[in-house]
Amino acid sequence: MRLTAAVLSCALCVTGAVGGAWASRPQDPDYAAMLDSASDIYAVTDEEGEPTRYYVASGASKTVQRLPKSATRLPWSIDITYSLNGPNVSASTVANASGLVGVHVTVRPAHASGNTARQTIPMVAFTVPSQVADDISADSNVSVSTQGTNTLIAAAGQAGTTLEFSCYMNAKHFTMSSIALAVLPGNDTGNGTNASSDAAQLTDTAFTLVDSLTDAGSSEHQQLIDQLKALRANEQQLAQSVTAERTVAHKQTFQNYMAAYVGSYTTHLSGSIGTSTQLPALVGTAGELSGDTPLAQAVLDLANAVNNVSAAHMHDGAVDALDEVIRRIQQQGTTGLVDDLTKEAAEEATKGSKQYAAGQKQLSAAMIPYSMKYTDVYTAKLSALIGGSSANASAYAQQAISETNNSDELKDSQSKVDAAMAALATACEHTGKSQALKQILLRFSNQFEVSGTNTTAAHDSTISDARLLTQGLADPQSSSFYGKTKAAEAKRKAAIARKKAQAAQQQQSQDSNASLVDDTMSMSASDVMSYANGLTSALGGGKSDSSAGSGSEESENSAGANATNDAAAKTATGKDEADEAPILFGFSQNGTGTLLTHDFSTLIAETVEIGDAGQLIAQAATQLGSAAVLQQSSTQTPAYLLVIPTV
């Protein structure tokens, strides 16, 4: 190896000496000339507010060139801080938090900007989903309005003057969009012009940035988009009908379980009942949670009902997945989508699995006190009906159950159970999104671009790619166990992927409206009962391996854990290797080519973000209206559009 390196070094030196290709380092491009002719400049910043690169549009044709971050300096700097219930906190702390959230934005002229800051004004815009917070208060210089399912927050400053504002909201699982900062030409003299025209020019180019990297706008994608829209309409209908049907069924099954629970409890009452739970009777009830008993069957029924109503929300996740895929195809075509969606599907599966497990614990923690409170209220109602004696208690049990179900005393306990059920529903939305993304890639694999080809071709060529991989290894490795194993593994994965794609495409051709998700969950009684020991342990009684009074509650949790299986993830990390096509790197020995390909995903992601930010600024300019009046600049000053990541 050292000899080879030395020979190569000598060769390069000789080439340089004779004036060959390596004679000298090429001169740096003239960035100043590019910037002088620039009309619009775009960038996505890192967490520190520093651009990773610039996209510079010049001339009437809006030719776009990418420049390194060292090419220029921004005329304005932006600082974003957050607060949670008063004190300032980090972005990671406020992400997904609930409480009083504050977002504080400060835009200042940069010290090294010279006259540029005095010839431009800043405009800031971002959105918060309405489901996160629907009541947002802000400083007087800020405009707040509803835009679809989001709340748009926008503000415009003055030339050369710091723009500073705050907004507050009572948030639930806080999140927000990236912040769009537009720097628009203007000065303190001349005729006033509305910001909309300047913003429109800036945003028009922002929307087209991605076109130079992808096949966005290609008419061939319209058929695919129409098919996806039809699937979305079907999933939206299923999300409404299936969820409504199963919600009613779950409510009835929940009441049936509680009736069976206190019905069993009633048969174990003795003596004077009193007005609170009789613990000996409750311990007797725990013994009926195993075996062939009505209570044990009620436990299993409720576990399945919880699973079913939670799984119905997979259709909501499928709608979310289809919305995203449609939007991204419209923005960037299908170039680079396969890898992005495959990765996202795995991430969503992991979220679904983890959040379902957390929801299980939350439901278990909520149901034990609910059951105890229910039994307390039931006992008091029953005692009042029968005069405090357990004699003939069963005859009044149904009336006491009806009065208990209508009691306001259960509201607090019920709200905690409802919150846990909502957490399980959210987890299933992630699971549904994961399933839908995988199905989309499989059903429409012949319409997705992968490095200049389509996924079907990619799967078919993986076997030959495996040969190239083996050929690209050093001679001793190509025939080694390692080389043969890697090639065989590539063939196996390619075969599995090809079969799955063919099966999914056949299903799509037979039933174009078939759901993208499997919204069923099931489990055996033994799986349910193995987890139903929470209340027995809480009471300090019963056998260690027996079921307990909150059996359904904990069984509901175990139901999710066991039933998520394929629905959530194949492994703890949400990664199913069978669904992945291997990425191979190597060189063929006969010089026919290389498997190395340039990855445009980062640039595509950035330009898509810039396009989204351009839309925000366009909405902000319209929303601010006469409040954002610019003065016509007397010099040629480029406009900037920056995207600043947030939570």
From TrEMBL:
It comes from the Bacteria. Keywords: Signal. Residues 1-23 form the signal peptide. Residues 544-572 have a biased composition (Low complexity). Residues 539-575 are annotated as: Disordered. This is Tubuliform spidroin. It comes from Bifidobacterium saguini DSM 23967.
